[in-house]
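fyi for ur records
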Amino acid sequence: MSLIWDLTPIYKSTDSDEYKKDKENYLKKIENLNLWAKKNFSGSKNKIEKLEYYITEKNELSKYNKLSLYLNLLSSTDTSNEKIIKEIDEIENIEIKMTSHEVNFTHFLKEIENIEETINASEILKQFAFYIQEVKKYSDYILSPSEENIISLMRKTSSSLFEKQWEQLSSNLLVDIEKDGKQQKLPLSVIRNYAYDSDSSLRKKAYESELKAYEKIETSAAFSLNGIKGEVIAISKIRGFGSPLEMTLEASRIDKKILDTMFSAIKENIPEIQKYFLKKAEILNHKNGLPFYDLFAPIDKEDIKFTYDDAKNFVIKNFTNFSKKLGDFAEKAFDKNWIDVLPKKGKVGGAFCEGIHSIKESRILTNFTGSLNDAVTLAHELGHAYHDSCLYDEKELNCEYPMPIAETASTFCETLILNSALKTASNREKKIILENDLSGIAQTIIDIYSRFLFEDEVFKRREKGFVSVSELKEIMTNSQKEAYGKGLDEKYLHPYMWICKPHYYDSDFNYYNFPYAFGLLLSKGLYSKYLKDKKAFVELYDKMLSVTGKNNISDCVKLCGIDLYDINFWRSGLKIINEEIESFINL
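which gave:
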């Protein structure tokens, strides 16, 4: 088992014949489909035959997504590799050309009034009914082919470039810190991991050094953020959306009523979660709530530590307790070297999972340092990979699922391993496990809420003009105060959280914060269903995941008897969390 992921099943290298051939074919197929679409997507004659041809070709074209996925995986562990940066640029230039046929297809659908009748007249179209209907719905916001092409070209030299600038700045930022009696320059990912260290003085020193280091890149990061958010605002207006949030909810396959219902439940429950922060502050001898640098502090100096092998076995064992299928899948991921494990200079921070549907595999990036949280992160990312595996038998066009449901399987897997671990833990271990879980939950409910408040306010201010560094810091600290309340010590906030979170810098994924809270509370609701009937639930769970690419989220979860419009459902998930907080306090 290697600690470096194996990307060779995707391509041997960018110099391989397979890579070069796919790159060449990709361009040819796009150009051919563009010419065909321009010629055929006019008038309503032979509409069924035209749609059948396009859908078939578009599905085949989707298999070439592995080109950009491969390059992004390479870049994520070596962000300064100029050759890969150049290749990414070339592939993006090819992908931009797809705008032409996609826009023509959307305009063609816009003119078809009896879309359901058209779909039902073809066995091929029936397979992709949801995809076609989603594009048809989006046609209300589509611009002319020439305008769409202009937007695609401009994005490549604006938001796309700003995102790359931020990646370069953050991944290569070295932080000055005194450690072990000497001055050192360490990668940002290493410094941020010290937040989990048992040495309280190191945690505080790392926090102060991190904030100081951001001063080196704050202006450049602010320009990146303003450039991206400004573009998103402009495009959402041009398309006819009321706001970037409205545009995001449309893409997320939920509506504002569902989002408001979830946040209403969260806001009324904030005092309950504050009890956890205050109890942890008491344990760590803080009188005014937790300082930001101790949010992730272990409460026991002898924290539960894991070697990578320990973490692997821990995850596999507890996944298997849920279902053999899930356990076997995780074991395969480890054995086939799907995971890039350790932090290093030039590697992006955090963790992610990328599914490569064309080869029926996934790849996972982590920055593993041996904590219980790292083991939980492994489970989380493997949950994403398992979700993707449930869609292996679907065609590519039926595999795209929206952000909120994307965080459900991953969070469910966290719940699985932690609840299994609690069954055999000593009281001391239970305290550590519960605190670790509650720390993550508090981030997903409370910190995510602060990030939502921040991004919402940034969009409002950006619409009026440039948002300065000082304003960004002010918005972030105000958002943290509102979300954390008395649970966080206001003398020690994190005004630069907008620099270190990648979700703010992707123009395709705005408001990538609420999906985490959504996924957590949905997973808690699912887990309560599992406890009531374990045998029946496993089959329902897999079925739900398998249809997430071709249904609205509310329809997917109905398979498990869940109503997202009912505030009591969200309260039921929060009730499980509140009970966990009480257990922690009592211990």
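The first helix runs from residue 17 to 40. thats all i got for now
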